[in-house]
Amino acid sequence: MASTSQPLRGKRACKKIFWAVFPHGCFILSLVIYAFLGALMFSHIEGNRKVNLSEEYRKFLQNLWYISRNLSDNMTENEEIFKEKIHALLNTAERDWFVNPKDIWTFFGSLFFCCTVFTTVGYGNTYPVTRIGKYLCMLYALFGIPLMFLVLTDMGDILATVLSKSYNEFRKLQSKILASKLCSGSTCNKGDELKSRAQSKVVINEPLTIMEVLKSQPGIKRKPIKYRNAEIFEMLIARENEHTEPARNKSIERWSSCPELTRGKTMSRVIKNFDKIGKQLEKLDVPIPLMVLVIFVYISCAAAILPNWETRLDFQEAFYFCFITLTTIGFGDTQLEHPKFFLFFSLYIIIGMEIVFIAFKLGQDRLIGLYKKVISFCGEKKMPSKKVYPK
């Protein structure tokens, strides 16, 4: 029986883990599918469009021909004038006149464009030109941006849990070290502490009447009647819950004997997991300097790796590019030569945006707390002082 029960427990544990991870995997998978469908759509629409030579393009060629024709044999005399005219003329040129759309709107190029759309980065070096492409881009962003924020919130809960637990463990370790330093050389009276804890906690091991509860708790007699009644009621509820726990365990065992009931209970747990999204971010309380240090280290690691395939970028330029990307500013002043390699950094971008999002959320909470303190301080200053009249 023991050998057969162990595989069943293993299967149940695997099922629990699967249904616990299911909501997170569902969000990420839906975002990946949405990005791939958008890449196929934009590569077909924008990549197969016909390039029509406009009147501006003909004027550009005509002006370039005039400048080259009026050049004299002596380049030293007209070199500065030639540079100024060529620079002004090239500023009027458009990239679509010289680039084939199929070279820009490949599958990886379109996928990179879709990632910049729903992450709200928007570098500006790749954009739709056709009218239908612009309309579809607006519709694509309308559904893609909320989906991206949902993934950020969901993954932010995981990161918030990891950060909060790590920070709490660090604080516990720090307090233990300080306690060991304080207790070194002197014996700590742990017995008195345990006695005080035992007296402060109310433990009811067997059914008691209300009169017995009153007799066993002398501290209740000194309190007002309404507080005594509330504490008596809470103790009775605790006693009732303690005696009904074995019955609940039996009911849980009956769930496993009926597959239909087990499936329904599992689905209800999955639905509750969806309802818990974003709750851990609200509970997170980590110092802002620690979050700034995490962001700095996170961006520095990418800035050290990125120049390996983007040879035009050094560490400082790569750091600037990663910061502009993760904060979704996206000026577009730094362009990548190999955007398909940067697509492999998609997980890095999502996790980095979550870290920045958590830092912004902490900063927002601190600002709200600061505003509350300032307003309460100003309100106390403006409150008229109460006059005490003699009787």
Automatic annotation (TrEMBL):
**One of the GO biological process terms:** stabilization of membrane potential
PANTHER family hit by this protein: POTASSIUM CHANNEL SUBFAMILY K MEMBER 18 (PTHR11003:SF346), POTASSIUM CHANNEL, SUBFAMILY K (PTHR11003)
Cellular compartments per GO CC: plasma membrane
Subcellular location field = Membrane
Organism name: Thalassarche chlororhynchos
User: Any idea which GO molecular function terms this record carries?
Assistant: outward rectifier potassium channel activity; potassium ion leak channel activity
The membrane-spanning stretches of this chain are 21-45, 104-123, 135-153, 286-306, 318-336, 342-363
Q: Where is the Potassium channel domain?
A: 103-159, 294-364
How does the record say this protein sits in the membrane?
Multi-pass membrane protein
Q: Which UniProt keywords apply?
A: Ion channel, Ion transport, Membrane, Potassium, Transmembrane, Transmembrane helix, Transport
* UniProt superkingdom: Eukaryota
**Where in the sequence is the signal peptide annotated?**
none
Question: Family per UniProt?
Answer: Belongs to the two pore domain potassium channel (TC 1.A.1.8) family.
The molecule here is called KCNKI protein
